[in-house]
Structure to design on (67 residues):
């Protein structure tokens, strides 16, 4: 498993825990909004910052997609 995939799984699980939502539902929502690949591709930025910054970025991304 790549380091990117390991981090993506960690990010997904931590995000789901923070939001109080099962990780399978979070991933389903990201897939429906077509942001999963983008989030996965942000490894270089997200893994080098505080995870809360990634959460904020993901929240903004998801809210823009809902509009």
């Amino acid at each position: 498993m790549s380091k990117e995939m390991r981090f993506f799984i960690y990010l997904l699980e931590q995000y789901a825990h923070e939001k109080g939502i099962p990780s399978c539902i979070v991933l389903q929502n990201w897939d429906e909004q077509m942001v999963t690949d983008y989030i996965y591709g942000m490894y270089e930025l997200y893994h080098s910052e505080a995870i809360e910054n990634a959460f904020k970025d993901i929240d903004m991304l998801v809210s823009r997609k809902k509009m």
